[in-house]
Design goal:
Helix content: 25-40%
Number of domains: 2
CATH architecture of the largest domain: 3-Layer(bab) Sandwich
Strand content: 25-35%
CATH topology of the largest domain: minor pseudopilin epsh fold
Radius of gyration: 34 Å
Distance between the termini: 97 Å
Strand order of the largest sheet: 3-2-1-6-5
Structural class: alpha+beta
Length: 176
């Protein structure tokens, strides 16, 4: 017969096997009645920290950063190119409008808001309709347009989206 093996605390294990090997669930005894509260306090502190960070994060980079300016110009160019494509595909004129009061460039259901911290100017060709706080860039079914230059400025960075009057193509130029 085997000799019972004693645990470091001096307790005998069942069947002479090392402690915890009896096939049953082992039990962990808390050393103090406050042991469970430490985990709850840590989770509460983490939740409060994350909540404060969620409020502070928008304040880290206020306004339009250089990558956001590039995204704004890319969205505007995409809207203009989509308007040109719609005019060609639908065999009808399609207008892209800039509303000065709402600072918004739109065509059909699509719109691109222009942030207040970005200086924006639109110089449209002589055949482009304008008035009443809006300016339009008209794309014709043959792909041509009335021509325009959209200028986006943030600080010293200037990006221009040019709409060619002859073929309606849109490109982006930095500077000027």
């Amino acid at each position: 017969m085997g000799v019972p093996i004693r645990s470091p605390a001096g307790e005998a294990s069942a069947g002479g096997r090392p402690w915890g090997g009896g096939g049953g669930a082992s039990r962990v005894v808390a050393e103090s009645p406050q042991a469970g509260y430490v985990l709850i306090e840590a989770i509460a502190a983490l939740a409060i920290t994350l909540l404060l960070l969620s409020f502070a994060f928008p304040l880290v980079a206020p306004g339009t950063t250089p990558p956001r300016l590039l995204a704004l110009v890319a969205s505007s160019v995409s809207l203009l190119r989509d308007a040109r494509t719609a005019a060609i595909a639908g065999s009808r004129p399609v207008a892209a409008r800039f509303d000065t009061a709402r600072r918004r460039l739109s065509s059909g259901p699509n719109a691109v808001p222009i942030p207040a911290d970005v200086a924006f100017t639109l110089v449209a060709g002589g055949n482009c309709p304008a008035g009443g706080g809006t300016a339009e860039i008209l794309f014709r079914p043959d792909g041509s347009s009335c021509g325009a230059v959209l200028r986006f400025t943030k600080g010293v960075r200037v990006l221009r989206a040019r709409v060619n009057w002859a073929d309606g193509r849109v490109d982006v130029v930095e500077g000027g």
